Amino acid sequence: TLQTGLGRIPDAVLSALAAHRGLRLHSGLIGDGVLALIRAGALAEGPSALVGVAIGSPALYDALDTGHFQFRPVSVTHDAATLAGIDRLVTINSAMAVDLFGQVFAESGPGGFQSGPGGASDYARGARQSAGGLRIIAMPSCAKGGSRIVAPGEGPGPVSLSRFDVDCIITEHGIADLRFKTYGQRAAALIGIAAPEHREALDIAWRDSARHIQED
Predict the structure, then answer these.
(1) How buried is residue 41: exposed, middle or buried, by Cβ count under 10 Å (0-12/13-18/19+)?
(2) Nearest to 156, CA basis, from 202, 121, 101, 113
């Protein structure tokens, strides 16, 4: 069962899953990326997509008139007990930046605040309680030449997801699986998926920060 948001990254992820079968959706928002799953027959038969809101093209709205979709209020789509009861709930969201502790920043960009925290924290906590759940942040490694993996304390705006609310960070350079890692191991994994031209600066910034951290 997948949860995604809106935008190019979620749409690309869903398109890449079109060869799968028996998929389910449980999400507050869906967009045109869902069309790839519908057209490929990737969704499980019957009512396999419980969602709150659909925002997209006329083609998306036309495709909603099937037996797959159930529309429910936020009290259902974001309910902690409901999410915890979904086996193998995989949440896939994006972010403006992630720091070397694994903290996620998703609300503010160069032009200021762009959104509130949304439902990502609700889904992260639900997936944490789900049997076999997985919490993924997918994002490009750079934006306008700047690294979106940043040094501790350099994230834009408030922390949207704490370091306890994320399992894996994915960029075009690979996957940083942060589970069961020390601070240093997490930082090394994140530097490894940063854009190559920013890795040295991130390594220097981490070594400076690490002087103040004691680990067993």
Answers:
(1) exposed
(2) 113
